[in-house]
Design brief:
It contains six helices and five strands, in the order H-E-H-E-E-H-E-H-H-E-H. Helix 1 packs across helix 2.
Length: 155
């Protein structure tokens, strides 16, 4: 509702002012520093707010990650990589592509285990709902799937 929207707006404004390094809105007129790096929708909104007063690298969208794994991959590492994207933004889209059904099962179990200790689990779970896993018949099919999801990045 309106209260949640107001709180989100205030959070964005606070974040933007912190990025500028000042506490007062009128200080935004003084050009200082730059805001760089990834973030969630609030960070992007804050960058948009301060972009006239400080430099920014870019306005980023939600994080997307595609992990291609074969049977030699470590499920704990895969789960960590997927959660590292998912834990920062409920709009993130973590994707696993694998040629091994056992990897799908092991990564799913590892994600559940790691979520139990993750302070940002609520955000990560929301992002995981946006993601998915693909079981490919062989490596060539897995690469084709990755190319469709992230053109030009798999080779």
């Amino acid at each position: 509702g309106g209260l949640a929207r107001a709180e989100n707006t205030l959070a964005v404004e606070r974040h933007g002012r912190c990025q500028v390094g000042r506490r007062h809105r009128d200080a935004v007129d003084q050009r200082e520093g730059a805001v760089v790096g990834p973030g969630n929708r609030r960070v992007t909104a804050a960058k948009k707010i301060v972009s006239g007063a400080v430099g920014i690298d870019m306005l980023a969208g939600p994080s997307e990650l595609v992990v291609l794994a074969d049977g030699a991959a470590d499920p704990a590492v895969i789960a960590s990589d997927l959660l590292a994207q998912a834990e920062h933004d409920p709009d993130a889209q973590p994707v696993l592509v694998t040629t091994e059904a056992d990897v799908l099962d092991a990564v799913e179990a590892e994600i559940r285990a790691q979520l139990a200790d993750l302070s940002t689990a609520q955000t990560a779970v929301a992002a995981l709902e946006n993601g998915f896993a693909v079981g490919a018949a062989d490596l060539e099919e897995a690469i084709r799937v990755c190319d469709r999801l992230a053109p030009g990045t798999s080779r």
